[in-house]
Amino acid sequence: MAIETPKDYTAFSAETIKAYVCDSPALAAIVGGKQSDLKTVEVGDGNLNLVFIVEGPSGSLIIKQALPYVRLVGESWPLPLKRSFFEYHALTRQTNAVTSGARVPEIYAFDEANALIAMEFLAEHIILRKGFIAATIYPKIAHDLGTFMAQTLFRTSDLHMETAQKKGDVALFVDNVELCDITESLVFTDPYHDAELNSWTTPELDRLALSLRTDRDLKVAAQLMKQRFTSNAQSLLHGDLHSGSVMVTQDDTRVIDPEFAFYGPMGFDTGALFANYFLAYFSQDGHAEAPGSRDAYQEWLLSTVMDTWASFETSFRQLWHEERTGILFPRTLFEDQDDAIGSEQALTRVLDELLADTIGFAGTKMLRRLVGLAHVEDLQSIEDPKRRAPCEANALAMGRELLVGRNHFSGMGQLCALARAIKSRGVSL
Ligand code: ADP
Ligand code: MG
Prior knowledge:
Mean pLDDT: 96
Bound molecules: adenosine-5'-diphosphate, magnesium ion
Strand order of the largest sheet: 1-2-3-7-6
Low-confidence stretches: none
């Protein structure tokens, strides 16, 4: 299909982006110097967009530009440029919502016609997923990401927001149709049928991958989660909160890339992160330099699962008590009637539901990375399929248990115990 490119749009190259930066007073002031002083490189390693680093004599920045098609697949899959608009607006809302923990990069400019965002270049940070593959310990991510999720999700929900503003924002983001469609198809449906773009480690994983299509309980569970995804405008989601959307140093955590943002169920964001912790966990056996050499790191990953949820819950509880100013669970029904116990009971129910959603979405997110279109580097970088497939089989078993059993876990401790049990037992191919 031919791509219709909007008339004011130019897809830049590492060369042509220099003049663009120099022509923008705000950006030129950050990098300094003249056009010939600028060093630029295109570094996009994601599935969708161009990413340029621009360095000048006095500073640097990143320019992220949407292409009118899916980079991973090519021009045969058009994708509207307006996703850049949603990414920009999500970034501004996240900037305002977070007061501690992980932050988003500082945003310098947004050019809607060219579908590009200029932002802070995180030169020292690396993608968290790459850190996991290298078995690097990051002591702050559990706190930073738990807090980030609680603040962004609580403060953009009806627990906190003024209702007219919330509804206006829901209306704004509901137009992110095509990116929601990608999630709806790729996460919730394609892994469970003969979708053209599915792939997996073949022939090793054939039996398990194909078993998803005849697993009725699993298919129903996946569609129930999809129903929650499409019909539950709880909070402004990041929409793609995996370990490739987090950049880290030892003492700083940043969240990038919210182009899938829309108002959906809180558990979709939390589930994405926990899914990626567990994918990292099961991939370690394929990276171990010697048998058992990554065991300690795997335990660190599980402690991070526990600590992330603990931080999330602590922060969410605090927000419940201090910032519950929206239309849901109003204080008039609880605290104002001296019914603190009622407020705690409501909070417990909300958190229980959120835990079940988190687990269900985590299950769907794990499965789609094993048999769907886009896989994860944690597993893809295990070159030998004989080593990779057993890791994938374990992750697949975990994903299934989470999705089908989502309402029967009492907390993250049980998930960690399940992960350990699957690892020690090993799933047969
Ligand atoms: P996509 O939406 O195409 O996946 P991302 O926003 O994930 O694009 O960016 C792709 C890559 O570009 C990231 O994996 C990271 O390596 C790099 N990148 C993106 N934003 C920044 C930034 N602000 N600072 C440094 N590197 C960045
Ligand atoms: Mg990305």
